[in-house]
Amino acid sequence: MNAPAGAIRKKRHPFLQSLVKQREMWLLCVPIIVWVAVFCYYPMYGLLMAFVDYVPGREIWECDFVGLKYFARFITGNDFPRLLRNTLAMSGLSLTVGFVCPILFAFMLNELGNLKIKKFVQTASYLPHFISWVVAGAMVTQLLATDGVLNDLLLATGLIDEPISYLQKGEWYWGLYTVINIWKGLGWSTIIYLSAMSGVDEELYQAGVIDGLGRLGLARHITLPTLVPTIVLLWIMNVGNILTAGFDQHLIIGNTITQRYWDVIDTYSYRYGVQQGYYSMGTAVSFMKALVGFVLVLVTNFIARRASDVALF
After folding, report:
1. Where is the ABC transmembrane type-1 domain (predicted)?
2. Longest C-alpha distance within the chain, in Å?
């Protein structure tokens, strides 16, 4: 006995059902899918260079297979402790100070009652995000140079007797990097938290006021719990980038005097893989960094799911 036509339709895979039902939407996504496949997934074929002695001009499969040779050489090299120290130090500052600042700034903007002032401050805060690091680095250099604006101002007010070489003091570099990153990304990161705050039901605030909560109480008991899912998700993604501690800014504001403080894994990979032509070494370093970041995302996501029931997947 043949099954009814309706029963056959019910056995269709859910993905195929959505594909047929939303075929116009999928057709619109075809160019994006093709772009991702060509420019994001196809170049991953080049990761094979990390496992061979790559010679420019030859196909990868024609090169001698060396296994984990370049991974081991990087980890056991003399530069590895310094690179790891600098990378983790600056990433740690970004994950703590740099991560908290946008949250606090979003709370302060949310408390502004004057809408015009609020829009002006918000616009002014995220404008640096659109400035390239080349321009931002030139601005920082002009500001902090020995004959720069800051030294001229301090000398004119009598606070110092001689110019300070801010950019030549390696022990100041990590703090300088953190401040510059906060200045450049503060406003843009704040947008995410302000969007989450805008979704809070106004009746919750009204109920809180009736219960006697002040501004701090409303922020602590209503606004902050609303932001927790957003904070957790962003934290998970940022942990995955713990081995990414900047690149452009180091090449622009860094110098040979402070190199032992700003030289990180990315600049090392660029120096060996691009400038000196050791493509296998540069690929191995970048691949290892991406692999560690992926594992950290999985671990952090698992912990977040168990602790707060909020996770990426």
Report:
1. 84-300
2. 100
